[in-house]
Amino acid sequence: HIFEAYYQGEGKDELGKSLGLGLAFCKMVIEKHGGSIEAVSELGRGTCFRFFLPLLEVPIQQKTAMNLSFEEKEELKNWVEKIEEIPFFEWSLLKEKISQIPAHSEGAEKWKQALETAFFEDNESLFGEILGKAKANL
Fold this sequence. Notes:
- The chain has 6 helices and 2 strands.
- With 138 residues, the protein is mainly alpha-helical.
- The longest helix is centred in the middle third of the chain and has 15 residues.
- It is elongated, with a radius of gyration of 22 Å.
- The N and C termini lie far apart (61 Å).
- The relative contact order is 0.12.
């Protein structure tokens, strides 16, 4: 019942009032992404929620298969330099900088998408490889 919309558990005080939509929303979003959610509860100890999402596998060749023209590399050169100054663990700074990269051509757009994919997969070596594609032969 806890994942049904508007369900509210018993024994709540004034601070615990809710509409009963939070877990229903979580379940809906997780299931729309092909996952599942579960709750394991022990009286007097608490509840543990776990959710599972499928891993999207993209072959590494597809992630890095791109040929940037000299002009595209020139367009991306300053962005690569700015991104390389940011440590990979500075997630929010990297995310912001990547989102600012303009992609005025199909090659640059594919490069940016591959960079985002490596970033969101937390694959630092692939991330560096993709950055390198924009610097090669300049």
